[in-house]
């Protein structure tokens, strides 16, 4: 089962990030080729690439300096900071979701939790990663705070690349993660904002710890 999670531009963003982190030769100062190089490489317009680079700059992945060029920031530090930001946003979104939950939101969260369980037991990593993404983004949507939801989506588009690798590498952590997702779900369904916030924070802190040790 393949979910269409991302717009075409988001997919190019992920491909570009993967290329920068895994394939592009690293220079001492982190300087990257011009936007035209990436437009040609990924067969998209220069306008699209510039929009993607702007989004990357807004999340701290790279810096653009007029007259000097584009520079990749230190990957590990940036992604840790993005993950820390994710923890702050999602913990509060979980609190708001518990307060603002409606019937449609409850049913969708239960459906996504069931997909997570199916993927965990079947070992389907693609389904697991996609269901996890949708579960967390649905909570942000239920929160009712559009700014938090959009900010989180921008962060998670880029963290998705790393999450795929984490899920493939740390197979034994999936069962524990499933239990944590059920705790988050239960707190939100019970409309318990305090426990929902704590459960999400604990889950994401454990996930970040696993990722740091990869």
Low-confidence stretches: none
- Let me know the average pLDDT: 88
Total count of helical runs of at least 4 residues: 9
What would you call the structural class?
mainly alpha
Topology as a string of helices (H) and strands (E): HEHHEEHHHHHH
* CATH class designation of the largest domain: Mainly Alpha
Cα radius of gyration in angstroms: 18 Å
Number of domains: 2
Largest sheet: 3 strands, antiparallel
Task: Note the gap between the termini.
Answer: 28 Å
Helix content: over 70%
How would you name the CATH homologous superfamily of the largest domain?
Answer: GntR ligand-binding domain-like
Global geometry: elongated
What is the number of beta strands?
3
State the CATH architecture of the largest domain.
Answer: Up-down Bundle
Strand content: under 5%
* Spatial sequence of strands, sheet with the most strands: 1-3-2
CATH topology of the largest domain: Four Helix Bundle (Hemerythrin (Met), subunit A)
């Amino acid at each position: 089962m393949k979910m269409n999670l991302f717009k075409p531009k988001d997919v190019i963003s992920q491909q570009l990030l993967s290329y920068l982190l895994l394939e592009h030769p690293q220079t001492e100062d982190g300087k990257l080729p011009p936007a035209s190089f990436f437009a040609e490489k990924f067969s998209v317009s220069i306008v699209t690439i510039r929009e993607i680079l702007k989004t990357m700059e807004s999340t701290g992945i790279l810096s653009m300096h007029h007259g000097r060029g584009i520079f990749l920031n230190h990957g590990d530090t940036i992604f840790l900071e993005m993950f820390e930001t994710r923890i702050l946003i999602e913990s509060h979104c979980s609190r708001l979701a518990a307060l603002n939950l409606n019937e449609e939101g409850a049913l969708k969260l239960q459906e996504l939790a069931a997909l997570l369980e199916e993927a965990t037991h079947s070992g389907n990593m693609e389904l697991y990663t996609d269901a996890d993404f949708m579960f967390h983004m649905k909570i942000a949507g239920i929160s009712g705070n559009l700014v938090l939801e959009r900010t989180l989506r921008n962060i998670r588009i880029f963290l998705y690349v790393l999450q795929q690798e984490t899920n493939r590498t740390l197979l034994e952590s999936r069962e524990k993660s499933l239990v944590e997702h059920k705790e988050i779900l239960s707190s939100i369904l019970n409309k318990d904002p305090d426990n929902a916030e704590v459960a999400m924070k604990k889950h994401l802190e454990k996930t970040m710890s696993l990722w740091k040790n990869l």
